[in-house]
Amino acid sequence: MAEKNLAPLSEADGRRLLAEAQKFRAKAYAPYSQYQVGAALLTKSGRIYGGCNIENASYGACICAERVAVARAVADGEREFVALAVVADGPEPGSPCGICRQFMAEFAPRLTLIMANLEGKTRWGSLEQYLPYAFSKDYLEVEEAE
Ligand code: THU
User: Fold this and answer.
1) What is the pLDDT confidence band of residue 2, given thresholds at 50, 70 and 90?
2) Of the residues 3, 20, 55, 66, which is catalytic?
């Protein structure tokens, strides 16, 4: 199941992260799509931040579970991330959307990604693999971000 040459993350940690993501999925507010998503982000310091999707009657204002997890971590002063797990109910493991991939790449371009559905179908990979040549601050002529 676990692919080789990814950022170091034990299978046990991966499973723990998936279990957390599943817990947060129960908090999803998804009355429009009925597609509930949970995410869990492991920081380098060993903390786990969970997120769920939060929808809105103005559909464009919806936010994905992954970005909620990352935003919670950043707001708590964390910027170094090891892995993110995402869980959704569907035939295939939940897969982060393009905006979320970009959002995660800002802080952790080599993040390990673990995706799963409720039937236990999983996919392990790296963000680099799912968002090759990600746009980043390296392309901008700005000072290093604080
Ligand atoms: N969604 C997520 O939360 N994460 C994903 O990885 C894909 C999509 C949410 C957004 C929206 O609330 C619902 O799933 C359907 O698109």
Assistant:
1) very low
2) 66
